[in-house]
Specification:
The structure holds 2 protein chains of 2 kinds.
Chain A: E1 5-11, E2 20-25, E3 31-34, H1 41-50, E4 53-54, E5 57-61, E6 69-74, E7 78-79, H2 83-91, E8 104-106, E9 116-118
Antiparallel strand pairs in A: 1-2, 2-3, 4-7, 5-6, 6-9, 8-9
Chain B: E1 4-13, H1 17-28, E2 34-37, E3 53-55, E4 64-65, H2 66-78, E5 82-85, E6 89-93, E7 98-103, E8 106-117, E9 121-123, H3 126-129, E10 139-141, H4 142-150, E11 159-163, H5 167-178, E12 182-187, H6 197-204, E13 211-212, E14 215-221, E15 228-233, E16 246-249, E17 252-255, E18 259-261, H7 264-268, E19 293-295, H8 306-324, E20 333-338, E21 342-346, E22 349-351, E23 357-363, E24 367-376, E25 382-391, E26 397-401, E27 409-412
Parallel strand pairs in B: 1-2, 1-8, 2-5, 8-19, 10-17, 11-12, 11-17, 12-13, 20-27
Antiparallel strand pairs in B: 3-4, 6-7, 7-8, 9-18, 14-15, 15-16, 20-22, 21-23, 23-26, 24-25, 24-27
Helix pairs in contact in B: 1-2, 1-8, 4-5, 5-6
Chain lengths: 123, 414
């Protein structure tokens, strides 16, 4: 019988069932996912262990207004390692009013394949 | 003194996720004159400061930020002839549904055919939980900190400690890290985290922020500004254990220790409140003990998912419109209580003979592989039974009862 160690335990969030997944590593270093009730659980858990991705949200001041802020987020998750680099890019932003909800403020930020968008409208 | 006296069919008090939906629900059910009263400068309520995503999964089938979610509802409201008054504080509500309003253009008296209470909630404060120590600056509720950071661009401190691991505390831990603050730890009095597991992972574990369960802040130190907090372990009765104290240096303490439905106006109108939820006692139509006054959203009971607050809003608005149009219930009712591991169940009152009623409930303690039953309080007859792999106090759950309800019920989880 192979020796397996638990690498991670996490609840899948892809559907309301919320399977409590376990990621195990065997003697060869291969990873296995257990307790998923559908196929989607596998890549979800493996990605979280091997290549975790995150979205992020913050807010930036809008030029041409009296200290109004516009909230922003990414259009999709990015590798966790570049979160702070992206925040540094966002911190340089001073979008000019008016800003429209959904407006792209930085396209393809740091080449990560996602945009930074405004999540509200500011007149 | 003469006041501007007007009337409307449905008056909605509060323009957040529940109130916006209630105004739309009332219009879509045919109410002619719908007013939406919001005391803040803009509509949106708490959503305006919730810049993170996770909203809209159920209402819009995609996950978006709070401001986006709010703006979509606000745009839908703007398409309808709904009278929106922002900067309008409702000072009084009578059982006869007369509102006294401090509006931007002066004092108004509004007579409503039906009223929807959607005032949301406020946060529990340091004074309310009586943390000993002086009153230095740097002590904030997590929601206040969120407002200052996200809407007012303020740096609230340098080194923070967070008391309470509900989602607001977890979200703000990450938010402060994004703004360059050091977060020394999150302390949670219960033996389990208060918020979503995903948030513990993405807000704390990702940044190496320790989460200490079974702990609380027992003293605040500092004269003009917070200098440190003293934390200690607690026992099963949640009392601090002497000898377990440690000092955590910090200049900011965020409190995420509970939300309280804001029912001052409801009390003035004579609405019966539940001491367990802090919100109104309602029937299956979300009507309170005062005829024609309905309740929804966080002012009724604290929600974890904004979409559910909106769904309650749509339902309450529709029922309010029907009431204003002359529809009346008034038959016999039965009362529904909660016991054992079920902390509360809504609605607390149901029309006798009604079938297909769905209850919302929360458990007291986390439990695995548990069954929840709706049964006759005296007869013990089981009307519905549902098994759950896991139940957490932080997750609002539902149970539907197919057969007609014929007696007083209780919702239990042995």
């Amino acid at each position: 019988m192979s020796e397996r160690t638990v690498v991670d335990r996490l609840t899948c969030v892809l559907c309301p069932v919320g399977c409590e997944l376990e990621v195990l590593k065997d003697a060869t270093g291969e990873l296995q996912v257990e307790a998923n009730q559908c196929d989607k659980g596998l890549p979800f858990a493996l990605e979280e262990v091997l290549r975790p991705r995150r979205n992020l949200a913050t807010s930036v001041p809008v030029a041409g207004t009296a200290a109004r802020m516009v909230s922003v987020r990414l259009t999709g998750p990015v590798p966790r390692e570049i979160v702070f680099s992206i925040l540094a890019e966002i911190a340089k932003l001073r979008p000019q009013a008016p800003v429209r909800r959904g407006q792209v403020l930085i396209a393809n930020v740091l080449g990560a394949g996602v945009d930074v968008i405004a999540t509200r409208s500011v007149r | 003194m003469s006041a501007l006296r007007e009337s409307c069919d449905v008056a909605v008090i509060g323009g957040g996720p529940a109130g916006l939906a209630a105004a739309l629900g009332a219009r879509r059910a045919g109410a002619g004159r719908v007013w939406l009263l919001e005391r803040d400068k803009t509509l949106g309520g708490i959503l305006n400061q919730c810049v993170h995503d996770g909203f809209g999964l159920f209402l819009y089938k995609e996950t978006i930020s709070g401001p986006e979610y709010a703006e979509r509802l606000i745009e839908d409201v703007a398409k309808e002839p709904i009278r929106v008054l922002t900067g309008a504080m409702v000072l009084d509500l009578s059982p006869e549904r007369v509102l006294r309003v401090n509006a931007r253009d002066g004092y108004r008296v509004v007579e409503a055919g039906a009223v929807v209470l959607a005032m949301g909630c406020r946060e529990r404060t340091r004074d309310m939980i009586e943390i000993p120590g002086p009153r230095p600056s740097g002590i904030l509720t997590a929601g206040t900190a969120q407002n200052l950071v996200n809407l007012q661009n303020l740096r609230i401190g340098n080194e923070a400690v967070i008391l309470g691991s509900g989602d607001i505390g977890l979200i703000m831990a990450r938010r402060l890290v994004f703004e360059g603050l050091a977060v020394r730890g999150v302390f949670e009095i219960q033996a389990w985290p208060g918020g979503l597991e995903r948030n513990v992972r993405q807000c704390l574990m990702d940044y190496g922020i320790p989460l200490e369960l079974g702990s609380t802040v027992v003293e605040i130190r500092g004269r003009d500004r917070v200098e440190s907090v003293v934390v200690a372990k607690v026992d099963e009765a949640l009392a601090p254990v002497p000898g377990t104290e440690k000092v955590v240096p910090c200049d900011t303490l965020l409190l995420s220790v509970g939300l309280i439905p804001e029912n001052e106006l409801s009390r003035r109108a004579g609405v019966e409140l539940s001491p367990i939820t802090g919100g109104a006692v309602v029937d299956e139509t979300l009507m309170t003990s005062v005829p024609g006054i309905f309740s929804c959203g966080n002012v009724l009971h604290i929600h974890d998912v904004a979409d559910w607050a909106s769904f309650e809003g749509f339902a309450a608005g529709e029922r309010a419109a029907r009431y204003a149009a002359g529809e009346r219930g008034g038959g016999e009712t039965v009362r529904v209580s909660a016991s054992s591991n079920v902390r509360y169940a809504l609605p607390q009152i149901v029309s006798r003979g009604l079938a297909g009623v769905e209850w919302s409930f929360r458990v007291r303690h986390p439990v695995r592989d548990a069954a929840v039953e709706v049964r006759g309080r005296v007869s013990g007859r089981v009307y519905a039974r549902r098994k759950f792999g896991r139940l957490l106090p932080s997750e609002l759950q539902k149970i539907k009862v197919a057969p007609a309800v014929e007696e007083d019920l209780e919702v239990v989880s042995p």
